Amino acid sequence: MHIGDMWSPIIVLYCLFATVGMIQGGSTDRTLVDRLILNYGPKTIIPKRATDSPINVTIRWKPYQIVNLDEYHQQLVLSAALKLQWHDDYLKWNPLENRNNTQVEIFINDVWLPDLSLHNNVDKKFTSHPKADSGRVLKVTHDGDVTWFTPIITTTKCVQEAYYFPLDRQICNLTFGSWLYDATQVKISASFDDDAMEFVFKSDKVWDLTEFDAVAYEKKYACCENAWSLVNYKVTLQRRPFFYLLIICFPCVLLSLLVLAVFWAPHEAGEKISMAIQNLLALLLFHQLAAQLRPPSSSVQLFDVYVLTMIFLSCSSVASSVLVRSLYFGKGISLPPILLRRLTHSKFCTMLIEVSTTATELQEMEEHQPDGCGEDEDLSSELLPATWRSKSSAATSSFEMGIHGGDDDDDDVNNGHTYGALAIYIMLKKEQKKQWLNWEKIQAEHRYKREWKLLANVIDRITFLIHFVVTVCTTAYVYLEVLSRQD
Q1: Concatenated DSSP letters of 236-291
Q2: Whole-angstrom Cα distance, residue 388 to residue 391?
Q3: Whether the Cβ atoms of residue 229 and residue 218 lie closer than 8 Å to each other
Q4: How far apart are CA 307 and CA 127, in angstroms?
Q5: How many CB atoms lie within 10 A of CB 35?
Q6: Structure pTM?
Q7: Any idea of the CA torsion for 216, 222, 224, 225, to the nearest 10 degrees?
Q8: Torsion angle of the four alpha carbons 135, 140, 141, 146, in this order, in degrees rounded to the nearest 10
Q9: Contact between residue 108 and residue 84 where contact means Cβ atoms under 8 Å apart
Q10: Edge to edge, what strands does the sheet with 137-141 contain?
Q11: Which sequence spans correspond to the domains of the chain?
């Protein structure tokens, strides 16, 4: 027998044992997992040997980005990463007996899992813990510490507080807790390590995450004897206002300035009333269109306070324009009431408008005013026409000659001239009186119209002053409210 033939079986056996050892070493994790699952027991029982204290479950929920914020239905959809940690007394082993293996991965369906629920969830798919394909495995260490990482998408109710729109901040709360176990069985706490405090949120073009905080607390319900352990995550979102300021607020300010511009249009312009009405319709239409871009709310928003105030001022500007125009172009058959005249000629009103007669009104009065100043004015005055003034001069000369006398031979002639001149003189005197009374009537009418025009101007300026003060006060109120919100 050759020496090579004698060692051949030995070499074969050595290779066989080496191969078996390598296979056993490579399958150590599977064997360990199978053994742990086989000896685990019921998965509905809390994996804690000591029953006098609850099992501690630590949660870390970290938002990544906003999937959708439905302001009309008031729902917030967030993409986040969920991490749960707890201690399982039935998932322990000795690393020295398992080739120094200190960690294995186990499917979530094979062991006990906290029945974590999102209490303010509005998505039926998130009834308990999500079982995503990327989060179906638990990491288990040799000392029984279990860690579960999984991405989730949460849909929660987020009540919109839009009073300060578009400079509003929305606070949304997500409350996690066990649906089956109370605080004596499962105690949930929030994680505050570096991993939990890491900011990984990606802001979109509308919202920024300004605050993110977690609070663990216990709450007692009337149904149960013991309290329940809960963790609430508060998410504060700040709206980016530039788009809304440009599209909504800036045009609103321009329309409010047009309300004041109505009062500076002249009364003679027929478009003054139409301008006020068009401005009112523009504000109403603008308010309806802006409502489609704003979140619905049962309470009055700060934007509504400003717009509705401008609409009220626009309505009052229409009414004021109609009143002022009717007074300015009225018949003026009598003087305004004494109280209104006192208001017109008061010192306050003289600061708003020039109360003296305008040059146009003086020109109109001079066209109707005669040179004579009374009934005893000479008949040759400008009160009578030119042909009548020549007759008046001749009649006056003849009448004076008849009165002072002349030659005896001319008595009959003088008497005839005297009686004729007297008749003409009386007739012209009556015509002068008639013209004088007509001028007084015209003068009175012009005075009445002047007083009513001055009253219309005073009312127009007072209304403008009121609108200006209300606009400034409303703008200041809105500005101060926004500043107080920012503080």
Answers
A1: EEEE--HHHIIIIIHHHHHHHHHHHHGGGS-TT-THHHHHHHHHHHHHHHHHHHHH
A2: 5
A3: yes
A4: 44
A5: 12
A6: 0.65
A7: 90
A8: 80
A9: no
A10: 103-107, 137-141, 145-157, 75-87, 55-70, 186-190
A11: 29-240, 244-329, 353-468
Q: Is 207 helix (H, G, I), strand (E, B) or coil?
A: strand
The answer to whether the CB of 214 falls within 8 A of the CB of 175 is no
**Exposed/middle/buried for residue 435 (C-beta within 10 Å: 0-12, 13-18, 19+):** middle
In this predicted model, what pLDDT tens digit does every residue of 414-434 receive, in sequence order?
555 555 666 666 776 666 666
217 by DSSP, 3-state: which? strand
For 176, phi then psi, to 5°, come to: -105, 145
Residue 126, both tokens? 């998130």
State how far the Cα of 10 lies from the Cα of 18, in Å rounded to an integer: 12
Write the pLDDT tens digit of every residue in 18-39. 444 444 444 467 888 888 888 8
Spatial distance between the Cα atoms of 395 and 417, rounded to a whole number of angstroms: 8
Provide the pLDDT for residue 98. Answer: 80
Query: Which are the contacts of 457, defined by CB distance < 8 A and separation ≥ 6?
Result: 267, 324, 328, 353
The token pair at 229 is 């352990």
Distance CA 227, CA 126 (A): 23
Establish whether domains 29-240 and 244-329 are of one fold.
no
Give the span between the Cα atoms of 106 and 109, in whole angstroms. 8
Would the pLDDT of 193 be above 90? Answer: no
Angle of helix 386-404 relative to helix 411-486, nearest 10 degrees, comes to 140
State whether residue 178 is helix, strand or coil. Answer: strand
CATH architecture of the domain covering 29-240? Distorted Sandwich (2.70)
Fold held by 244-329: Methane Monooxygenase Hydroxylase; Chain G, domain 1 (1.20.58)
Contact predicate 279/320, CB 8 Å: no
Cis? peptide before 166, omega within 30° of 0: yes
Gap between the Cα atoms of 432 and 392, Å rounded:
11
CB 240 within 8 A of CB 207: yes
As given in the structure block, the two tokens for residue 73 are 């239905």
Q: Which amino acid is at 376?
A: D
> Given a cut of 70, is residue 13 above it in pLDDT?
no
- Give the 3-state secondary structure of 338-385: HHHHHHHCCHHHHHHCCCCCCHHHHHHHHHHCCCCCCCCCCCCCCCCC
